[in-house]
Every structure is written in C-alpha cells, then in structure tokens.
Amino acid sequence: MHKYILNLYVFYIMHCSCVRENPNLINRSANFNAILRCLVLASILLLLVPTALADNPGTIIKVGVFQSEPLVIIEQRGEVTGPYAYILETIAENEEWELNYIQGSWEENLERLENNEIDILIAVPYSPVSDERYTLTSEGITTIWGIAYTHKGSGISSIKDLRGKRIAVDGSDMFYTDLNASLTSTNTNYQFVEVDSYREVLELVDQKQADVGIVSNLYGDTFEDEYAISRMSLVIAPTEMVFALPKNASIQMVETIDLSVKELKEDAGYISYFPQNSQLTHINTWESPTWLTLTVGIGGGLLLLFIILSFVLKNKVETKTSELNSKNQELEVQVRERLAAEKKLKLYFAQLKHSNELKDLFTDILRHDLINPATVIKGYVEYLLEDEENVQRTTALKAIERNNLKLIEMIENAANLAKLESVEELSFEEMDIGNIIEEVVQNLQPRADEKQIKIEFRPGGDYPAKVNKIIEEVFSNLIANSIKYSSEGTIIEVVVSRWNNNGWKVSIIDEGEGISDHDKPLIFNRFERAGKLNIKGSGLGLAIVKRIVELHEGDVGVKDKPSGKGSVFWVTFHQ
Questions:
Q1: Phi then psi for 566, rounded to 5 degrees?
Q2: Would you give the DSSP letter of residue 469?
Q3: Closest to 443 measured CA to CA, from 153, 157, 161
Q4: Can the peptide bond before residue 70 be classed as cis, meaning omega within 30 degrees of 0?
C-alpha cells in the first residue's frame, strides 16, 4: 500500500521537474489535472485492496472439553475459558488452526477420543493406562492432586478418622476413584455421597451434611475461603495434567503442542503466575481482526485523499503553519514539563506495585508452595505410624511428626499474619462473643485434658458485639497459649466484663509461670516468645492477635495475676 503511494508521489515530483525544465510544457493546469485523476484512481484501487487481505481459514481441530474448574471453565453461554483453553488457543493462532470445541462429560470425551471423533482432549491426568490407550503430550502445564476438607469442630484430622464418615465426592472425579480403591482395600466401611460438582461437595461440608469433602487442590485453593471449612493433611493421587490425542494422532501435532507449551512455560511474560483466593490469570494473545484490516485500508485511502487536498490548499496551509509553530513551541514546553512529572509518578507507582507483588508472591509461597509438601509429609508419617511396630522407628517417626507439625504451624501463622497486614478494614456483623468463646473452649478442651487443666467460663448472659468471624482466632490463640504455658492440674478462667459502657473486655486468667516486666512489651511482636525456649510455637500467635484486635479498633495487653502466680491476658472490643 505504502509503495503505491510512494510511486505516485515520485511520479508527481518527476513530472513537476520536467515542466520546470522544459519551456514547452507550460500548461501546468492541464498536467496537474491529469495527476489529480491518477491519484483519485489510485485511491479507489487502494480502498479495494483490504478485501483481498482476509486470511484463509486454517485446519479445523476438534477439541473435547469438560467442566474442570479452574483449569477448564465452560460458561453458561457455552464460552470455553481457563488456562488450558487459553494455551491451546495461543498454539492454534501460531499454527493457523481453527478450534471447534465439543462439550461433554469426562467419559463422553474419552469415548470420542478413542473413536477418533475429536483431535485433542485438554486437561487430562497422565497415567500409564491412559498413555497406552491414547497419545499423551510429554510437556505438562501443572500438577494437581486431591485434597480433603472438613467442617470446623468435626474432630477429623487424619485418614484414620474417616472410618464410618460421610465423604462427599464428585461422582466423575478421578480422585474419588483413586480414594475409593485405596479405602476399599482396608476392609473398612465408608459412606460416599456423590454429587455433580466440586461446589456441591464444599457446600455439603459447609452445611455439615457431609463430614469430609474431596476436591482438587486448584479448586480448593481458589474457593476454600468462601466456606467455613478446614483443610486436612491428606494428599490423593498427585498427577501431571497434559493434552491427549487419539492413538493414531500425527506425531508432528504432538511435537508441535509440546514445543509450544515448553516455549510458553519459559516465556515469563506470556503465561502469568496465578495465586490463591483470587481469579485465574490469562495468556496475553492478540489477533488482528478483519475489520481492523479494512479500517487500515480505508484510512490509507483517506490519507491519500488528504494528500491530494493538501496540494490544492498548499498556500493556505503554509500561511497558517507559521502561526501554529509559535503556539506549538509554547505547548511543547508545557508537554515536556507534564511528561517529566508523569514519568516520576509512573516510576513511583511501578516501585509500589513491585513491592506489593513481592509481598503477595511471598504470601502465596508460604501458603501453598511450602504448606503442600509439609502436609504431604504429615500424611505419609501418619500412614507409616499406623503399621510400624519397631520401637526405634516409631520414635523416629514421631520426632518427624512433631517437627513437621511445628513447621506447618509456623507456615500457617506467617501466611495468616502476612494476609492480615495487607487488610485495611474488615466487614462486621453482630455476633455473641459468649457463643464464640464457648465454641473455642469446646474445641481446645481435649488439649487441656492432656495436662489435666480445667477451663472455666461461666457466661452471665448475652454479649452482643459488632465483630468479624475472624475474632475466633483471638480467643483460640490466647486460650491455647494459656494451656501451653500452664502447669498440669491448674485452672484457666475466661471472664467477660463491661468496658467503657459500650464495649466488652475479655480476660483469660491462668496459673502459669507469669511473664516478666521486661518481656511484657515484647511478646506481641513477631517471633517474640518471652524466652520460653522449651515450649513449641512459632512466635507469631500473639502478633496475629494484636493485628486482629487493631482491625476491630480494640486493644490487647497482659498483666500479672493479682491474687497469685500467673498472668492475665485481656482484649477489648466495641459493642
């Protein structure tokens, strides 16, 4: 397009030169009219060029899809999204494929793949059996595994506690199949409740209509915060997710997918990192639509017409140009000053964004990349302890279990504190503090019974207050600390009293060793534990308590027990 314009312009310059050098060519008006007709003709031809620029349709690839959140998401209108769909669409754009999505269940898609009715099935777990029946790609995009959730206060913490429990599962889920086979081999009765989706699984657990629910780790990471549930230390069938093709598929297509996935994984700017309790990220792709090609062609034609008009109005333009130049110089000075200020603001914004991204990445690493291996270790240690009879090995396994539990507690507390520090405000609702304390005491009573400690809480009525449900962590941390640092056979009192006529003061009174005056100002800081080197803990519990109380615009503190040995931890809240 630009070459045509350039040739016409060169032709015009040469013609003008000939006219000036040849006195016989004096009829410039006629010559100019001839040139004008040529340019108009070229403009008309140029407007027709974009219609020939449309891309030819590429190879049609039939792709089997099924609902597998968050890897593959089928919207209500039938639109297919999710990381695997985005990746395949990126490959299709590069290879000039035209994708035709065919929806169905997992079983229907496997049957279509085996019968050569589809060319590709996305988000398929790798297994030796599948590798024999189909052609699997070698480059996986992510590894997933099954995880278990239970409702708070269920008392279920390990695989041995599942006996006789109601286990909610997705009837078509591969993790259900693997867990069912594993549990069946133990000759123990289990009651499975089959539903149609992971969301129904978590809803049953949240509503206590099931004791345990099994979902994939990616789905749990994304949606677990929407429910009042707790993750168990149970890992089911870790497997790598790949693409599957028919057994007689083209080796070239398989190699093309593997090479493209490998390149996408190595390009940090192309596939974004996506964190927990947030939506999935996307792959940055862009396709030049046909309308844009037409627009460019029309714009080129209009540009050519503008050049023609500029010849006609040349004298007037030159007259106005000098006036505009002086005004432009003044505007350029203002623009440069404004650009310099904007550059500084953008630099400052980029630095803040980078700092926040590093903090979010650190929190995600704590919460997922570190906690997952630790929970895997916990599950396998519990499994080995069930059947181990050698005393020496049992002692070693219990030592591993104790230290791993300490590691899990430290990681969870660090992640919770990092998450709380990024929160500016909480949503509140009216709740009874007394009911919350009673539930916490009930949950911690087994731990107190191990040390023959009695927890006394005698509510004198209702204690309504505007709080967030996370306030439970405050009472749980403080009472758990009192149990940890108190001697066997002692008493812990929990007292709720009036504070400033419009709030409540909760006091936890123990008979422990007490806290020195030197340590009292320090214990609510991170990793400060008042010199208790022989007590297990992360040193973050009281820092979490302080941050939650601050978000409630309350206060927290500690003092010596007035009537004798021990400490009094207190927190205040507005009513």
A1: 135, -175
A2: G
A3: 153
A4: yes
- pLDDT tens readout for residues 275-290: 333 333 333 333 445 5
**Which of 537, 539, 545 has its CA nearest to residue 508?**
545
Instruction: Give the C-alpha separation, 258 to 251, whole Å.
Output: 11
Distances (CA, A) of 233 to 161, 286, 315: 12, 42, 83
Cβ atoms of 141 and 83 closer than 8 Å: yes
555: helix, strand or coil: strand
- Beta strand pairing call for 80-81 and 73-74: antiparallel
Single out the residue of 92, 99, 35 nearest to residue 64, CA to CA.
Answer: 99
User: CA–CA separation, 7 vs 49, rounded Å?
Assistant: 16
**Size of the chain in residues:** 575
- Quick: pLDDT tens for 99-119: 999 998 878 888 999 999 999
Half-sphere exposure for 427 (CA within 13 Å, toward CB) = 0
Question: What letter represents residue 574's amino acid?
Answer: H
Question: What region does 566 belong to: left with phi over 0, alpha with psi -120 to 50, or beta?
Answer: left
Tokens of 390: 């050698």
Q: Are 253 and 260 in contact (CB under 8 A)?
A: no
| Rounded-to-integer distance, Cα 109 and Cα 543, Å | 51
Instruction: Give the chain's mean pLDDT.
Output: 77
**442/475 Cα distance (integer angstroms):** 12
The highest-confidence range among 71-80, 269-278, 320-329, by mean pLDDT, is 71-80
The span from the CA of 46 to the CA of 301, in Å, is 6
- For residue 332, what pLDDT is reported? 81
Longest dimension (CA), the chain: 124
Neighbours of 245 (CB within 10 A): 22
Backbone angles phi, psi at 234, to 5 degrees: -135, 125
- The answer to whether residue 554 scores a pLDDT higher than 70 is yes
Contact 125/214 with Cβ under 8 angstroms? no
Question: In terms of Cα–Cα distance, which of 484, 474, 468, 457 is closest to 545?
Answer: 474
- Residue partners of 437: CB distance under 8 A and separation at least 6: 457, 459, 475, 494, 496, 506
Cβ–Cβ under 8 Å, residues 372 and 238: no
433 vs 70, higher pLDDT: 433
Q: What single string gives the DSSP state of each residue in 56-77?
A: PP-EEEEEEE--BTTTBEE-TT
Q: Which two tokens stand for residue 464?
A: 């309504």
pLDDT tens-digit map of 214-223: 998 888 888 8
HSE-up (13 A, CA, CB side) for residue 541? 20
474's tokens: 């405050």
- How many helices (H) and strands (E) the chain has is answered by 16, 18
Helix (H) or strand (E) holding 122: strand 120-125
Predicted TM-score (pTM) of the model is 0.36
Please give the structure tokens belonging to residue 237: 């069938």
Q: Residues 436, 464: contact at Cβ < 8 Å?
A: no
- For residue 10, the model assigns a pLDDT of 40
Please name the residues in contact with 568: beta carbons below 8 A apart, sequence gap of 6 or more: 507, 508, 509, 558, 559, 560, 561, 562
Overall average pLDDT of the 531-536 stretch: 43
